[in-house]
Amino acid sequence: MFLNTNFPKAKKYWYEGKFYDWSEGGCHPTMHALHYGSCVFEGIRAYSTAKGPAVFRLPEHNDRLLLSGGVLKMKVPYTKEQITETIKQTIRENRLDSCYIRPLLFFSYGNLGLVPKACPVELAVFAWEWAAYLGENAAKGVHAYIIPSRRVHHTQFNMAAKLGGVYVQSTIAGLEAREKGYDEAIFLNMEGRIAEGPGQNVFIVKGRTLFTNGRLESALEGITRTSLLEIGADLGYKTVVGPITKADFFGADEAFYCGTAVEVIPITEVIDGSDTTAPPTTHTIGTGRPGPVARQLIKAFNEAVTGRDPRYEKWLTYVGK
Length: 321
Ligand code: PMP
Prior knowledge:
Elements: E1 12-15, E2 18-21, H1 32-36, E3 39-41, E4 44-49, E5 52-56, H2 58-71, H3 80-93, E6 99-107, E7 121-128, E8 142-146, H4 168-179, E9 184-188, E10 194-196, E11 201-206, E12 209-212, H5 223-234, E13 238-241, H6 246-250, E14 254-259, E15 263-272, E16 281-284, H7 292-305, E17 316-318
Parallel strand pairs: 8-9, 8-15, 12-13
Antiparallel strand pairs: 1-2, 1-7, 3-6, 4-5, 4-6, 5-17, 6-7, 9-10, 11-12, 11-14, 14-15, 15-16
The structure holds 4'-deoxy-4'-aminopyridoxal-5'-phosphate (PMP).
4'-deoxy-4'-aminopyridoxal-5'-phosphate binds near residues 162, 196, 200, 201 and 225.
């Protein structure tokens, strides 16, 4: 019934205790989450290592999943250990070596009032091979479009949570950037400073310093971002977490997106479309090509996630046979 055209190597998914063939689907269209986005999710990656597939920072992702469930006032009927085991099983069941993993907790079928009083909280886990999120060419640098609408503010939503419904803003932003011919979007926050991408954090580089922002700038404090701050410091860079203005961004030596799906992708041009009363302005970042710092971080990140740098093996959960 459902073709897996866009989910390479996905054979089975896990739903409420059982594996189903990818082509099977049986959720009722009145389920609560479909109407109101009353779901929370994670985006996780596993990488191929010398000791078989390993999930990158699985405990941190599962903590965030459960935190998100709490923000949505779900009574989650699974423990962190059960979710961890289910994720490992799903990777094994699909015989995946490296993959993207998507656990989803959602208010399911029961009632359609805004308060899901008769809807159980259910869990589904998916895994498939998801290569380059922004396409194969993105490694050469992407053009980012600052969209006019501002990121939801940290006083409106808990920025540490990944709440399904809030992602409708990211979907609109992503469509808007592509409609204009650019690779990806960037949100400003309500204060007019850089917030984040629709599903990515933003870093800028000036000299030997890496700058990124955090929750108080209305950005998710992503797990990739946190890892890069540590890897960057280990490489001898100074790291600063705080506000990034548009002027900082446009004048940076380098800039890049980071996140689980996108990994680390250089931003080589920024198109500022945030002022709807004036034409957009174009700003080349640095030389307009991926810079040495981004290249060094990409290499170090890659070695970390694939278990080739023993310092970061602490971040890997081996899936086992
Ligand atoms: N910001 C947003 C809005 C995101 O959805 C993501 C992806 N989870 C990120 C940043 C990056 O977070 P992470 O590195 O944990 O994937």
